[in-house]
Amino acid sequence: MRSGGPFCLGARARSLAQRYIDKLDKLCVLIGRYSVNFMVKGSDKMQRTITRTSITASLGLAVALAAALFASGSPLPALATPDVAPVLIEGASNKTCQELQGAGQSWSELKVDPPQIGTFSNGTLTVTITNLTNTKTFDWSSNIGVDAVFVKAGSAGSYLYVYDPPTESTGDDGLTSPGAGVTNQISHIAFCYDPGAGPTPPPTPTPVPATQTPAPTPTPAPTPTLAPTVAPTATPAPTALGAVQLPATGGSSGSPAGSAAWILLAAGVAAMLVGARAVTRGKRD
Q1: Residue 237 needs a FRET pair 20 to 30 A away by CA distance; which of 4, 162, 183, 267 works?
Q2: Is the dihedral of CA 121, 169, 151, 140 positive or negative?
Q3: φ, ψ of residue 202 in degrees (nearest 5)
Q4: What are phi and psi of 174, to 5 degrees?
Q5: Does residue 142 surpass a pLDDT of 80?
């Protein structure tokens, strides 16, 4: 449960309550005497009357105590209690968080002076104070973990609420200062925290190197194979009937084959001339 201030009666309230308790004691003595007498006589009706009288007296005492509390101005008891028990810092010494920190700790401080309801921040720690009553009790909440809260009061001392160790806190209820009633009121509140206690940043993602896909090697186009050029074979022309196919004259004129060719050609021409003259003569005859 969260905190609330201790319930104490002021001097005036204790005086009024004691006065009513004394009167109630006298009334109880008288009721006891009457109860004994009537029980001896065996009167059931009178026993019931005495019982009702006892209940009425008890209710009267409860009302008297409540009236005494309101008359003295003392706060009613709180329903909650702090998460940790406070440590008494004696005297009116105005200590800082650095002076109050434990071994191995390094505290920074957010100071609220004077204490008041609202939200307060120094850029790292943000604290909201609520339910400040008679400058004596209050609740608080924060955005990051707080190691301790120093409730500074007067000469009757101050309270230090230490949360870390074991663990930091982000809120508590009913913190108060030493002293009964509304005495030794709070002068200021100091919230002690670790300098690096900011919100935990999200982890930085590790960059994954991009996998480079090698560019495909172009496949060289196949070199076309040139088909060998075949010279067309000349088809020999058909030889006309009666014509004499002359041999090729590709040889040199000085070779024997060339000379024979020319002789055959001359003989052929001569034969043609002889034949033509014979035909012409025959037509004349």
Answers
A1: 267
A2: positive
A3: -65, 145
A4: 70, 25
A5: yes
